[in-house]
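Before going further, learn to read the protein records used in this course. A complete example follows; check for yourself that the lines match position by position.
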Amino acid sequence: MIRIVDTTLRDGEQKAGVALSCDEKVQIARLLDKAGIYQIEAGVPAMGGDEKMSIKRIAALGIKSRISAWNRINIEDIRHSMECEPDIIHISVPTSDIQIKSKLRKERTWVIDTLKRCVCFALESGCEVTVGLEDASRADFGFLLDVISEVSIEGIKRVRYADTVGVCHRQKVYEEISAIRSKIGIDVEFHAHNDLGMAVANSIAAYLAGADFIDCTIGGMGERAGNCNYAEFAAAVKGCLEEWGDVDIRDIMEMQNTVMGIISKR
């Protein structure tokens, strides 16, 4: 079963020129919930100020969509998330050597040790905790499996495979997610960027390989070329997979137009 994780309020807002107010984010969260979105990634609490306030307000709405908060592998970040009382605390960890060396200036052992401490700390909150494998598509796959195995032992039930710079192709997505599912059996979420125009195709490949959680944004908005467009993904699911027979694309387009109207007013 496909479950949509909408990241319009986190990754989508990274699109150049987009900056939403608290009220606008709450309004968009209500629209996403009404549309039946499984999970709303509400933002990054560690940014503080209006960002943190908007996440608190969305988490307190009592809507059906599950609310998640994004964190680096940093205990203080996670403390900020706990104060917002989301349903899900998401911890993102760089997994490619490029990011581990250039972004963190650390070694692989530091990444695993620090991630395990953060996971254990976050699990104490009683929230569901998920782990994001940042830049997974450029990571050494053996190391990626090591990271997943370690967090699985700690109690993590879902990891996010992120094609952070949007360079992956369908075959690799299919093969690596299939291998994760068969070797470890953990739930997989797929996060695509559209730099090479393959976000929807890669997301379909991920689902076919066993990823039941697919990240999308409204209108495909997001950093650089954007993310997987929810309306286009839904059309592909209906047209190519013959699933979601009860989903009306016209309803999705109406919701998309309303959300884009809120964003474009600024």
The mean pLDDT is 96. The radius of gyration is 17 Å.
